[in-house]
Amino acid sequence: RSSYSCCYFVLPCCFFDFHGKYSRRQSKKTQYREYLDFVAQVGFVCGFHVEEDCLRIPSTKRVSFVGKSRTYPAAERALIDEQITQFINSRRTCAVATCDRRVGFNHEHHCGGLCKEAGSEPPEDETETAGTIWMPGFRPREKVERVRNCASLPRDFVDEVVLNVANLLLNAAPQKSCSDKQGGNMNTWNQGESLSLREVAEHLDKEILKKLKSEYGGLQTLLKNNHQVFEVLNGRVHIRDWRKEKPPSKTRPEVKRRLSAEAFKTRLCWFFIHHPDGCSLPSEACPYAHGTEELR
């Protein structure tokens, strides 16, 4: 309904209608196929030539629909908009009557969701065409959607949180003796203790938590984004021990193995700079730079 020149692409996934969960009506089809038919039907009702395509992606739900052209001239837009409004109203009636198996449907003119019980005229507050009120309570998303995955947080703020959490884990336990798998010697390298996300949050400043709560994923997402320093498993935060990371596969082609051995280090090693015992790996084995002179 955005405009006559609007085109669309949709990849149906979760089974939802306009007003809630999609309710099945045909037992002869799989739930997925029936829902795909419903999404295609929405395109037909909106006056699109609907094309179906199967994406090459690693997912069980990979059937998509594309609407590139209209089935009606621009002059008939107001008439089609009335049809769309009636269709939305009929789906609402269907949603209210989901428990009533006796509700019938009219499948004429590709409008297979029109309930026979629905009135032919839409309510007065929904007779406006596109550009005014589409349906009560509807609010389109902003033109520029704000990215909220902790990636847009200021670098200084992220560094402060990482350092606070790391110190919290390091100070939670005395130093332990660990075996250096590369040299075979016994070295003392403090890996700290693991704490639950809740325990970590309890030790952080309220202002920091408030800022993190405004981001999708919050504290957990920020810690996972800092893969070099932390490992988050089953709701518990650990300091990552790079000696335990699996070495590169020996079955890879020679060229890739050679490139891996001569890795371009583009980031400084956090442990080399901040950890009281330094990095647990020697410089040649660490994927991060031990000093600015190693940066490429």
From TrEMBL:
Reactions listed under catalytic activity: uridine(44) in tRNA(Ser) + S-adenosyl-L-methionine = 2'-O-methyluridine(44) in tRNA(Ser) + S-adenosyl-L-homocysteine + H(+)
Localization annotation: Cytoplasm
GO cellular component: cytoplasm
EC number: 2.1.1.211
GO molecular function: tRNA(Ser) (uridine(44)-2'-O-)-methyltransferase activity; zinc ion binding
Residues covered by the C3H1-type domain: 263-293
Keywords for this protein: Cytoplasm, Metal-binding, Methyltransferase, S-adenosyl-L-methionine, Transferase, tRNA processing, Zinc, Zinc-finger
InterPro entries referenced in this protein's UniProt entry, alphabetically: tRNA_uracil_MeTrfase (IPR011671), Znf_CCCH (IPR000571)
Primary site of residence: cytoplasm
UniProt zinc finger (C3H1-type) residues: 263-293
tRNA processing in keyword set: yes
A GO BP annotation: tRNA methylation
Task performed by this protein: Adenosyl-L-methionine (AdoMet)-dependent tRNA (uracil-O(2)-)-methyltransferase.
Family per similarity comment: Belongs to the TRM44 family.
Descriptive protein name: tRNA (uracil-O(2)-)-methyltransferase
Organism: Agelaius phoeniceus
